[in-house]
Amino acid sequence: MQTRHTCLDMWHGMRQFLVVGTSDSGKVAGEVNHLWPGNGTRDDPYVVSWNENDTFNARNYSPWRKVIIIAISGMSTLSVAFASSAYSGDLSSIRQYFGVSDEVAILGLSLYVLGFAIGPLLWAPLSEAFGRRTMFLTTFSLFTIFNVAVAVSANFASLIVFRALAGMFGSAPLTNSGGVVADLYDAETRGLAAVFYSCATFLGPVLGPIAAGFLGETQGWRWVEGLLAIYSGVMLIFNIVAVPETFSIILLRRRAAELSKQTGKIFLTNDDRHNPPGSLVKRLRVATSRPLRLLSKEPTVIVLAFYMSFIYGTTYLLLAALPIVFQQVRGWSPGIGGLAFISIAIGMFFATAFMVIINRQYARKSRESETGQLPLKHA
Prior knowledge:
Number of strands: 4
Protein name: MFS multidrug transporter
Organism: Penicillium brevicompactum
Order of helices and strands: HEEEHHHHHHHHHHHEHHHHH
Transmembrane segments: 67-84, 104-123, 135-154, 160-182, 194-216, 228-252, 300-326, 338-358
Subcellular location: Cell membrane
GO cellular component, one term: plasma membrane
């Protein structure tokens, strides 16, 4: 009799809820047959989690699908970095066309990079609140539109305004694509994937001046900006077609909402059960304030932020200075002058090879560790 009561108690705590849920939008798993913990009530909702080998979980995508997603994310990041430096490759023709000085002409580069500082403070946290795909498609669409606006600008004032907006909205891949890498790969394999993805961040500034220099010599600066619009537009299409939402919390939240809609029961994710997302205003406030709290209170974040700002500052200082040194002082053509940036690519490839070796050592140390994590002295 006692065994029977025990079984009934267990049944009450882990009631079988058989549901076959199909998503009309394709954003929720096709069929879900699972023992959900809970009772489906407001006080005791069913807690939605990943099933074993769940194909809707981004971690369980096939290797080739992961490679395709990372490749598209990397090429999208490349397009943003490419657009930042391509402007400097044809700086002389822009200066002559609008009749402005070198100091004023460089504003098109400086304000674009300033957008890199503003945009990530918004797009990274908002992607965790509303989904990486939603934020990326929204911001990248505007990035493409502003690239078109730059190409058809009638005066220099409109050009630098549209460049600043393009930089701000185009900065989403610089931060969100790293989140996609974390969504797809576990801790052991994530480092290697991130190494190859991060190449796009610094390969773009190398390719930009070279391509823009040669194209600008023959077709003019508007075609250079038009190329950026075409490139970003193509990558936008690829993202729409081939890159799904990968953030685990958003996917589970959508699954819970779909199951609640189809069954009339209450389904929640484990995160939402303990920390309800609240109103839209609250979600926006929490999402946008988190980076500022981390930047002001976490020593590790502060040090890395200063380090990355130094690296980016040095890189874009070279982007502004080298065209002046080699094109104006030495008299090189824009195309030949852009070849000076190959030195950055050489250093990047050496760093990539080094990081591949180091990442393997880190993975081995993690496997040998009793906790399964990297020992503190190697962190």
